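Quick check before the chapter quiz. The format below is the same one you will see on the exam, so make sure you can read both the input and the output lines.
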Amino acid sequence: MDAMQGEYIVVKAKDQGVQVIGLTRGLDTKFHHTEKLDKGEILIAQFTDHTSAIKIRGKATVMTKYGTIETDQ
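Here is the expected output.
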C-alpha cells in the first residue's frame, strides 16, 4: 500500500485527555505513536505501511468513510 493512498479517520475529542494510539504492522504489533487530545480537538490520522490499527481511549467521535462512531466512555 502506498502511504499517500492509505485510509484516513477523523477523531474529535468529546472530553479532556482522549488518547489516540497508532499500532504497528508486521509480525509483532506494538504501539508506535500516541496523541492526547483535549475536548474539541480534532486529529486526522492515516493508515500507512507502518500503521495497521488505531486505538482510541476516551469519549470521542470517530469519522471514517464507513460512517461515524461514538465511543461509550
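If your answer matched, good. Residues 3-64 form a domain with the Immunoglobulin-like fold (CATH 2.60.40.50).
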